Amino acid sequence: MPLTALLLAAVLLPMQTSPLRPPSNPRDARIAATVPYGAATQPQLTLDVYPPQHGSGPHPAVIIIHGGGFTGGTSRNGSEAYCADFLAPSGYAVFSINYRLAPPADFADMIADVQRAIRFVRHNAAAYNVDSSKIVLLGGSAGGYLSNMAGLLEPTSNSASGDPVERESDRVAAVVTLYGISDLATMPDPSFVGKLHLLDTATPTPAQLASASPISHVRAGVPPFLLIHGDHDASVPIQQSVLLRDALRGAGNRADLIPIPDGPHATSTWARIPHVPDWEREMVEWLNRTLPNDGPVGEGIEARSPTAPAH
């Protein structure tokens, strides 16, 4: 076992929760530990740790936020957790989180959980051999909405808290969002917000929808954003990412968009598309330039469908 993995196992053993399920796929077997990151009253908040597989560190960290329509999904969702397959070999410490779901959780609860995860990783940076100035959010679908919001809201901390984790900042160095919502009002059917009670009311007003939309929180000085989105996404139209990219650039920020031609919702569908872009490689290269990081690129990227022409 690599030295980094041995050190992580030694550090995290006292924090380990119940034993992991028997591995159902190779990705599960690469998880070094599943640990609680929430406050004492939130034992259900856990994250999976994928140790970096390159370099001596301190390593940049990526926090993965899964999708699931705000009502389901776990830290092991394939469409988002797949990113650990190619980020860990590039020298990134990867943390894939669970967060509270609706019902009864609402947007504010979920965003707070993401912010808590950022603080947790920063507070334990030495134990994980992480560079606390290089923490990245990576969210997909519902998790993409959360990565957008947590990346755009003003960073906070609570210096008076008795919990040392809460005294850390939730600032991040970059945000990668896969097929995420940026403007609730222009979604094909925003009624899900009321039906799931994701705000304080079952009938949110236009002003409430706007306040809860990431695009309303765009300002100068936010972290760089990379948006990746299929242009045939029927669940979250690509226009959501186009709007956010344009707003971010209009405020003087760096924002890049990788469109997936003919791509529907979720990365698990993209490998079967002819001429699909090398979005995984482009993601790692973008992160390496942005942070910066010198990790290698390419290992862990799943093979394209043999029926898809080479590109």
In short:
With 311 residues, this protein is an alpha/beta fold. It is built from ten helices and eight strands.
Q: Order of strands across the widest beta sheet?
A: 1-2-4-3-5-6-7-8
N-C termini distance: 36 Å
- Report Rg: 18 Å
Can you tell me the CATH architecture?
A: 3-Layer(aba) Sandwich
Helix count from the secondary structure assignment? 10
Strand percent estimate: 15-25%
Helix content: 25-40%
Characterize the main sheet: 8 strands, mixed
CATH homology superfamily name:
Alpha/Beta hydrolase fold, catalytic domain
Task: Give your account of this protein's structure.
With about 300 residues, the protein is of the alpha/beta class. The chain has a single domain, classed as Rossmann fold, CATH 3.40.50. About 30% of the residues lie in helices and about 15% in strands. The chain has helices at about 5-10, 25-30, 80-85, 105-125, 125-130, 140-150, 190-195, 205-210, 240-250, 280-290, and strands at about 35, 45-50, 60-65, 95, 130-140, 175-180, 225-230, 255-260. It has an eight-stranded mixed β-sheet, with helices on both faces. Helix 4 (about 105-125) packs across helix 6 (about 140-150). The longest helix has 17 residues, at about 105-125. Mean pLDDT is about 90; it is low at about 1-20.
